[in-house]
């Protein structure tokens, strides 16, 4: 792996993988949902969707044709902690695509007509989300847990905030955050690292960052306080989601919570799957997750079940979480969870795109690429005592979200 | 296997990078060593999808896929999952109309210890009566979850309308009433009929040699279940869409209308035509510069999104469009799509547009053959519906098209009058 910082502060990471004639690149901007105020929720998502739709030199269609005529892919997205342009090309087209990506980042024109189109599509996207029961139940859980914190809302924002965002808001966010000293570029594939770095230098090296420092990231503190939220919908399945506020990626509990979510929710042999699906036939989908976040994360367990079974499913889900508090994990179970997590971590680095994504992301959230080695070491080092401590910190104030037919959710509430 | 005949394009045939070995039992093994990877994948494909189901047994193939994981006389339920996952591996399965397949992905060194477990499950599924009842509840939950998804409901309605009485038109999940009428005995009969060597392809890719693979497969897949002879699957003729087939579904909780349109394509015996329909799908709706996305989403702004899909199947493939839009736009959007199809059938596309679509699909093919798991899936799929080596012919078939041959293809498959359409409307 080659890592370098250009004189303008841009971090470049290049890894050669000659196996396939493919180059994948990721251009990370260290700003995403975590930089949004409630009034501007959805700002980065909207910004990224308009970003690829015009530069000082090219129209939306010309950009699309430049990408699609060579069979490349160019994606733009906003996530909780970063925004990103993703490229995939055959090796010989990489330079052209990288130059296009640089042009998009440096000289977007944010055409008004394109902003209005993407605004309307975002509003429709928000409505479409209401069609998916899990999304509705999860959104209400997230709002309860995060209150004023930017993670409270879907990355699309709200209808009100999307209506209110102006072209000036997009320009201001671009001006503030899209600067070389706030960016990481990762290039992985059939390209010599020195050449990859030289191409990035050529495309982005003369981009000067503003003299002003980046604004400090200040996020509201969260105090866990148990809550229940319900939505009545006449669905075939009731959705029950249980959540706890949980440590960020830099929290001492991080590795232990990753192992606990693996133990509870990862795969066909996971605890929730075996107890609630295999033994009781309560669900098709039952699992747990604990996303890696720069700020306060959440530990979530969920189940979708026949409305008539929702009381027993809720009891089952709660008692599995409660059970952890009594320190029942055996050394063998901990070892299995470690094997699973580490094995799957290795399996998650098979494509050029996966590697470019992972290393760039670590750099973008301030962990550095060596987190790729630190993470497995931290996981291996977890003991039953570390698990116990994480359980006592995390599983205290449960947030509960229930969605289903009226009689069911009312009886549970 | 059937010998299939294809027109010979002018482009040289790429060498098939994998080995195909037919064992004495009749079992097919496909292997490709990939030196740079520490990962190995075993993906077992069985010609036991929903089209193998007797007419009275819809949902059986998929339900059996669930029950395979419920153990054998020697392997209690859950042991297999533990053995794979505690070694850091992944396992799962899927069922469609033409196949069921079961795969494990893990560190290459762990394959010799784990493949025997997968073989044991597949060949000796016990299908215990109590597990049958419990797992049926899980499948009923899967159906409930699908019934809450308007996209799934829309696609099922479209398939039923397009394929009519053909098994491709049925949901692989079956219905609760159909599943409740089945017994463990019937499922064992279905299993013993179809999980036989001549119906199975074991694909192994990644960091393991051919010799080691063959020895391992030979040992693991040696004792097949006693043969049974359950009712045969229906052998319905491929359907023909006569005129326009139309259905309007009003759904509660729908926030956004949909228009779904579908055309029948050829079976795998006309792979060149199928590849051409893939090209036409891309030309119509892949990317902002494609015809329908550009006109309907970007310029006229009549729709929120359009996606096109071409699904290659053994007997009869499907080209479908899904368009997200407000209900009041349906009429003019549908008329525009029909106009564009008429254009395709009457005017050759420009060489530049053809080149764009060809390059996009050939690159997509390269992008989707990057990992051992992707390769195993590709070889297994083609091996199950035809022959594995056809998988790598795909770019050649794509490259062979000319504006004229594509125009001819559009004229023969994509009628502006004969197709199936489903509208989803908010209740």
UniProtKB/TrEMBL annotation, chain A:
Domain Peptidase M16 C-terminal: residue ranges: 165-341
InterPro entries: Metalloenz_LuxS/M16, MPP/UQCRC_Complex, Pept_M16_N, Peptidase_M16_C
Molecular function as annotated in GO: metal ion binding
Any single Pfam family the record assigns to this protein: Peptidase_M16_C
Signal sequence, renumbered to the chain: none
Every Peptidase M16 N-terminal domain range: 12-158
Name of the protein this chain belongs to: Insulinase family protein
